[in-house]
Design a protein that fits this description.
Layout lengths: L7 E5 L3 H11 L4 E5 L2 H11 L3 E5 L20 H9 L8 E5 L4 H9 L4 E4 L4 H11 L1 H11 L1 H10 L1 H12 L2 H4 L2 H4 L2 H4 L2 H9 L1
Parallel strand pairs: 1-2, 1-3, 3-4, 4-5
């Protein structure tokens, strides 16, 4: 990520024109990472760990086009969403984007556990507000983590145990107990030698 203070959004879209449109719309506010096919999207998901995903439902699986042996099953956006939601990144918000607005497609999106389902062409304000809503909890958590309020609360709570335990270290009176060493009167008991000189 170029800026650690900005959220990272993975945009999975096979159309270069639409990718460019998303870049112009969101680049000033988010760090953007792009993928053109399902396999690249999953690789970027593991490598970048984005905060949110914009995922086209009708992806062309170019990466699995030419294979030897039996043809591999082609993946689309729904398959990618399902795999994300079964992975360690399952809490990452996924917004499904499609040109279809049918009931069946929306149900398929819900079955894939997509967090939102938007129909193309997506209204710019709707897309922005959807991202803001899905990232709101992360934004609050990030602000609290670095805020002076949490530092103040931590300072008000933790010194209770810290200051209570410090008297043990301040118990330097143990070092003041030098009277035992000052008990040199035993060596000062030279009067015995003085009495010997008197008898002489």
């Amino acid at each position: 990520m170029q800026n650690s203070n900005r959220f990272c959004v993975l945009i999975v879209e096979d159309s270069a024109t639409i990718r460019y449109a998303y870049k112009r719309l969101l680049d000033s506010e988010y760090t953007l990472v792009f993928a053109e096919d399902p396999l690249t999207a999953l690789k970027q998901m593991a490598a970048v760990r984005p905060d949110a995903v914009l995922l086209d439902i009708n992806l062309k699986d170019h990466a699995r086009g030419a294979t030897e042996g039996p043809p591999a099953k082609r993946m689309d956006g729904l398959n990618v969403c399902e795999m994300i939601k079964r992975s360690p990144f399952k809490d990452t918000p996924v917004i499904m984007l499609t040109s279809k607005d049918g009931f069946i497609d929306k149900m398929r999106g819900k079955m894939a556990h997509a967090d939102k389902y938007l129909t193309k062409p997506v209204d710019q304000d709707v897309l922005r507000s959807t991202l803001h809503d899905l990232l709101a909890d992360k934004a609050v958590a990030r602000r609290l983590k670095g805020s002076s309020y949490t530092e103040r609360v931590y300072a008000e709570t933790t010194p209770v145990s810290a200051t209570v335990s410090t008297p043990a270290t301040v118990s330097t009176p143990a070092t003041v107990s030098t009277p035992e060493t000052v008990s040199t009167p035993e060596t000062v008991s030279t009067p015995e030698t003085v009495s010997v000189s008197e008898e002489a």
